[in-house]
Design brief:
Elements (H helix, E strand, L loop, with lengths): L4 E10 L2 E11 L15 H8 L9 E9 L2 E2 L7 H7 L14 H5 L1
Antiparallel strand pairs: 1-2, 1-3, 3-4
C-alpha cells in the first residue's frame, strides 16, 4: 500500500538555526499518528513544514521532500493554500494569518 504522506530527508532552519535534521517518516492511509515530545523539540516546526506554513515565517526555510499521495508538496506549481486545506494544524493559541479577519475565517 502506498503511503498517504512520506517525508524524505526533511531539514528546516530558522534564521540559520538548523531546527529539524534529516527527518524520514511515512504515514499510512487510515492510521492514527501522534507526535510526542517536550516543548521546543520541533513538533510544531515539523507540522508547519508538512502544511507549508513554515515558509510564512521570515528567515525560515525547509529542504527535503514531502510527498502527499506521491506528489511533492514543495513542487513549483503546487499552491500552498491547497496543501493547507488537506493538512491542517490546530494551534494552542490563536494564530491568525497576516490578512483580514474574513480571510482568516474563510
Amino acid at each position: 500500500m502506498e503511503s498517504l504522506l512520506k517525508v524524505e530527508n526533511l531539514n528546516a532552519w530558522f534564521d540559520g538555526i538548523h531546527a529539524l535534521k534529516g527527518i524520514d517518516i511515512e504515514f499510512s492511509p487510515h492510521s492514527v499518528n501522534a507526535l510526542i515530545g517536550p516543548s521546543g523539540c520541533g513538533k510544531s516546526t515539523f507540522v508547519r513544514c508538512l502544511n507549508r506554513l513554515h515558509e510564512e515565517i521570515p528567515g525560515a526555510r525547509a529542504e527535503g521532500k514531502v510527498l502527499l499521495q506521491g506528489k511533492n508538496i514543495y513542487g513549483s506549481k503546487v499552491d500552498p493554500v491547497s496543501i493547507r486545506r488537506k493538512i491542517g494544524m490546530v494551534f494552542q493559541k490563536p494564530n491568525p494569518f497576516p490578512k483580514s479577519i474574513y480571510e482568516n475565517i474563510a
